[in-house]
Specification:
By secondary structure, this protein is an alpha/beta fold. The chain is built from 11 helices and 12 strands. It folds into 3 domains: 85 residues, Orthogonal Bundle (Arc Repressor Mutant, subunit A), CATH 1.10.10.10; 99 residues, Periplasmic binding protein-like II (D-Maltodextrin-Binding Protein, domain 2, 3-Layer(aba) Sandwich), CATH 3.40.190.10; 102 residues, D-Maltodextrin-Binding Protein, domain 2 (3-Layer(aba) Sandwich). The two termini are 58 Å apart.
Length: 298
């Protein structure tokens, strides 16, 4: 039908069966038969035939619009196939946990896009086990998770180690203490991350292991919101070190206090993927460039 629709569109544009048949390099009777079959297949009349003149019916106008749309889609599809074959089209679907999406992923994507400004990057969010499942179901090309994954059929490349740090307003009472420890967080007003992430799990385990019971004022699933609310609520929080850069702290009048016990929250952020040979050239390129980026920091 695509071939017949293309012939139909050319007839409309040329306003002549004779001219259209020459462009398509087929005889006029053969083109007439193709259009007659198209009308039969669709069950509608596309032209009013007035002698040698052809006039589009109302449904003919709709069919012409559809034919143009299909022609464009076919061209895009064939172009994508060609680009895929020669590796010129870069399109990667990534899976990332919510925490990783807010910390690790933005600078990686920025770096990649600077080198490949026409690349298409799609991101699917989920918990670590959901990212692993999406990889196995081939819904994503590569996953970035805040843990090491050791599962059959999956490769895991460690990128960097991360741990939690204590963050608080510069005017907070703890800022005056020379050596802050976990005991200082007992009964302390805190804003923490919502349940269901590795970050919240780490936080809960930390409080349990150190017998600390903070005064939890808010549970929020956005690092940005937590940072903005700290001065207003006169509270403290625990955030991944990878998220904390000096400009962020300065803009919100915050500071970081190192507590030795927080080293116990250390986790490895990793790149995970399935069979490398089955990945697209773009996905392989993403893996190689991301790995190289973090290796340059060591």
């Amino acid at each position: 039908m695509f071939e017949a629709l293309n012939g139909f569109a050319i007839i409309v544009e040329q306003s002549s069966l004779n001219k259209a048949s020459k462009i398509l390099n087929i005889s006029q009777p053969a083109l007439s038969r193709k259009i007659a079959k198209l009308e039969s297949d669709l069950g509608v009349q596309l032209f009013h035939r007035r002698g040698k003149r052809l006039e589009l019916t109302s449904i003919g106008h709709l069919t012409y619009t559809f034919a143009l749309e299909q022609n464009e889609r076919q061209k895009r599809f064939l172009r994508t196939i060609a680009e895929h074959k020669d590796g010129s089209q870069i399109s990667v679907t990534l899976g990332a946990s919510l925490t990783t999406l807010q910390t690790t992923l933005p600078p990686i994507i920025n770096t990649f896009m600077k080198k490949h400004p026409n690349a298409e990057i799609k991101v699917v969010t989920g918990r670590t086990h959901e990212i692993v499942l999406a990889l196995r179901q081939k819904k994503i090309d590569v996953g970035i998770v805040a843990s090491s994954i050791h599962e059959p059929g999956l490769s895991c490349i460690p990128l960097f180690e991360d741990h939690l740090e204590l963050v608080l307003p510069r005017t907070h009472s703890l800022a005056e203490i020379t050596e802050v420890n976990m005991n200082h967080l007992n009964g302390m007003p805190m804003i923490i991350f919502s349940s269901g992430t590795w970050y919240r799990k780490l936080t809960d385990e930390l409080f349990e292991n150190t017998s600390v019971i903070p005064d939890i004022r808010m549970e929020i699933d956005s690092f940005e919101a937590i940072v903005r609310l700290l001065p207003t609520c006169k509270a403290v929080t625990l955030l991944p070190k990878s998220y904390l850069h000096q400009q962020l702290l300065d803009d919100n009048d915050l500071m970081v206090i190192h507590i030795p016990d927080l080293k116990e929250t250390r986790r490895t952020t990793s790149l995970i993927y399935g069979d490398y040979t089955e990945l697209s050239k773009a996905a392989q390129q993403w893996i190689e460039e991301t790995t190289s980026l973090f290796n340059s920091f060591h």
